Amino acid sequence: MRLDYQITAKCRPEHVWRVFADIDRWSLWNPVIDKAHWLSGEQWQLGSRFFMHVVMPRSIKFEPAITEISAPNRVAWTGTAPGFKGTHWHEFALQKDGTTLIKTWEEFSGFLTLFVGKRMRAKLIHMYAVWLNALGSEAEKLALGQSAGK
User: Fold this and answer.
1) Is the pLDDT assigned to residue 145 strictly greater than 60?
2) Mutual orientation of helices 118-148 and 13-21 as an angle, nearest 10°?
3) Could you give the domains of the chain?
4) Facing residues of 60 across strands?
5) 41 φψ region: left (φ > 0), alpha (ψ -120 to 50), beta (else)
6) What is the pLDDT of residue 108?
7) CB atoms within 10 A of CB 62
8) Percentage above 90 pLDDT, the chain
9) Predicted local confidence at residue 149, as pLDDT
10) Between 149 and 44, residue with greater pLDDT
11) Three-state secondary structure string covering 53-66
């Protein structure tokens, strides 16, 4: 099973990455995440692990590992829970007009995916929308603050 979502932010990928890369602050701007922090390895390096407590669409705790990294443009991690495995990608692509296309997609497998119907898919897409809109908004604020400081 695969789910996708994307938005456009009025800033550059570097602004999006700067906000996104600070996991310890995710809960300050992202209503989807209650807590997040690094567990092991160097931040944003292959194999490094972090903790995140997702509260939307339901409370679940993950300890995913970084499986792909090309900062400031792309990152992927894989996490598991009983009966579930998910690999989640985030991509921040500069557009010709100077904006950034912020994309996320996730591929799920495992026994629990058999019970994911239309309603749960809609809740998960809503979760991605909340996350990406909050990320885009925070990155745009950062970009505006930087341009005002010039």
Assistant:
1) yes
2) 110
3) 2-144 (3.30.530.20)
4) 54
5) left
6) 87
7) 19
8) 76
9) 54
10) 44
11) EECCCCCEEECCEE
- Rounded CA-CA distance 52/95 in Å is 30
Compute the C-alpha angle 126/74/138, nearest 5°: 55
**Mean pLDDT, to the nearest integer, of 90-108?**
96
Max intra-chain CA distance, the chain: 53
Structure tokens at 104: 């996320």
Contact call for residues 91 and 73 (beta carbons, < 8 A):
yes
Three-class HEC string of the chain: CEEEEEEEECCCHHHHHHHHHCHHHHHHHCCCEEEEEEEECCCCCCCCEEEEEECCCCCEEECCEEEEEECCCEEEEEEEECCEEEEEEEEEEECCCCCEEEEEEEEEECHHHHHCCHHHHHHHHHHHHHHHHHHHHHHHHHHHHHHHCC
